[in-house]
Amino acid sequence: MNSTFQIVVCGSIVPDPLQTLEPAASAAGPALKNEMMLPAVLDPWAGHALFEAANLAKSLPGTKVWLVSLGPKAKLQQVMMTVAQKVPFELVAIDGSASGFTDATETAIALAEAIATIPGLDKTKLLVFGGWESASRGAGATLQIVGERLGIVDQFQGVDQLTVNADGSLEILERIEGGKHQISKCAGAPALLGWATGNLPEPKNNPQVGMINMRTVMPALQKAKPVKLAGEGLSFASVALPKQLRETKIVKDQSADAIAKEIVEWIRK
Description:
There is one protein chain. The protein has 269 residues and is α/β, with parallel strands linked by helices. It is built from six helices and 13 strands.
């Protein structure tokens, strides 16, 4: 197999999901309370995309992986100390807000511009990976807009598996409704894939890979281009945590059918 690709993974950072997140009003609009104090991790959806990209690069000698990430420099550095030990990649950092309240179009424009400026990028070999969803930017539009800005019309969402054929064509397993998959075929790059969970486990930490990655990660963070996501025309009526509702009723000697009927009636209300 002679196919080689240039794989660009779009992945942001998000607050650690084990933390309690509380919306709060700020001068710039809605935000999370003490957001800068919360420990951050790589978006889990983007993580799947990164691991799949690295696995593909491992099987196709000459293939290179970039991680394009938009977030506060200090937070990016914190997260990259861990992520850099997982798989080989070259970081392209953008210094800006990683808030889930940012506009999808503005975010996509910043990502697309960063991708377009990667030295030596060949669009005939380009595969853009990212998360089908996001733990913070779940607008469902960011990755698609990135593809459109780069002129990539072959886009696939909900991807669980990618197979590269001997002729360089792509066979893609996509999720569809009803818990089923469809097999899509693409003649080759350029293409954009929004990954679901894929099939790969999280790689183990490898200090040697981390040391190699950090040689490029730190310079990339130092020269990260600042981007201000103004959110012009974007407004929020209200932001609040979902309300917890608990209704308990203790009833003795009631049949299973009667209990099921009562639960259905409660749900319908």
